[in-house]
Amino acid sequence: MKVSASFLSSQNIATDLKKLNDTDIDYIHVDFMDGKFVPNKTLPFRQMKHIYEFTSKRLDVHLMVEKPKKWISKFATLNTEFITIHLETEDIITSLEQIHTYGIKAGLSIKPDTAIEEVVPYLPYVDLILVMAVEPGKGGQEFMEDTVQRVKDLKKLLKKYKANIEISVDGGINNEYAKKLKNADILVSGFYITSSDDFQKQIDSLRV
Ligand code: DX5
Ligand code: ZN
Questions:
Q1: Closest listed residue to residue 110, CA positions, set 90, 94, 127, 88
Q2: Is the pLDDT of residue 53 over 90?
Q3: Which CATH class is domain 2-206?
């Protein structure tokens, strides 16, 4: 199981990023919000860019924005493995294609109320599906238990369509939920890691 660390609940992102350099974390999850798709807004891109220079790890960018196209080219300039956009936005296929033009893997995220089957038309265009286990917008929320079944259903669906796509789960994850998410390939975790004194111990406990 791969682990991606989120910083929405972090008190000091630069310090925590430096600490994570000494762990075996797979990715740094960058939550970017425009204050429109979700009520909250993150720092402007220019400032974020400077912060994420503190890491040697690959970035897993999660765009919670109304107009993803505007931001894809900016995040493509960083050390980025995935750029994930939301299915509940506009111009999905052209955005996914745009991500691929930079040689970056394309992800599609679904909110808790979006039916799993809605991903089907986009399967040929994606490398990753990010299943939200909380309403997007802030860190430290409670994991929605029905996500476990949604991930199982998604795994089955991907098998049916013979789609070689990774599954990532994001929001409220701790070691107990990690045990129930064996069908996932990547777990995104924020509060559970950054609220601890021992990041590596938390990461190890998620790799079940
Ligand atoms: C929620 C974000 C998540 C989340 C992860 O909108 O996409 O990445 O903050 O953090 P925790 O693990 O604290 O829920
Ligand atoms: Zn996220």
A1: 88
A2: no
A3: alpha beta
Give the bridge partners for 9, in sequence order: none
Tell me the H-state helices in the chain. 13-21, 45-51, 69-75, 92-101, 147-160, 175-180, 191-194, 199-206
- Is 197 one of the catalytic residues? no
- pLDDT score, position 113: 98
- The residue among 52 and 6 whose pLDDT is bigger is 6
Q: Which amino acid would we find at residue 6?
A: S
Give ligand 1 pocket residues (Cβ under 6 A).
6, 8-9, 29, 31, 62, 134, 136-141, 170-173, 188-192
User: Cα angle at 148 between 144 and 153, to 5 degrees?
Assistant: 125
The answer to whether 14 touches 53, Cβ cutoff 8 Å, is no
pLDDT at 208: 83
Residue 71's contacts (CB-CB under 8 Å, 6 or more residues apart) are: 32, 45, 63, 65
Q: Which two tokens stand for residue 102?
A: 């930079």
For residue 29, give the ligand 1 atom closest to its CA: 8
Residues 63-109: tens digit of each pLDDT: 999 999 999 999 999 999 999 999 999 999 999 999 999 999 999 99
**Ligand 1 mutation target, pool 10, 132, 170, most atoms within 8 A of CB:** 170
Residues with Cβ within 8 Å of residue 127, at least 6 apart in sequence:
82, 105, 106, 107, 165, 166
The mean of the pLDDT values for the chain is 96
